[in-house]
Fold:
Amino acid sequence: MVEETIREIRKTEQEAEEITAHAKGQGTQLLEQTRQETEQAKAAMIEQAQEKAKAARETAQAAGERRLAEALESAEREIAEIRKTAKEKEEKAVQTVIASLV
Structure:
């Protein structure tokens, strides 16, 4: 009877060791799975941030290009107006010179 009790105790200890080893294995597996999920989430967040930054950069670039185009159009209108004024003044100066000669 004592031998049977000792066998039962050893069997229980063996089962406990197996359960402990299995639990450690599961713990390691869970840690690895969590690490992988964390890495994937981190990569997704970085990619999302890069996409947002790219979109913001493209929006800013487009706005800058629009402002530049508007400034160029305004400058061209101003140049055309200055040329027109210069031409008118030139014509008046020519007429004044001709009138003074006649």
User: Anything to note?
Assistant: Residues 84 and 92 are 12 Å apart (CA to CA).
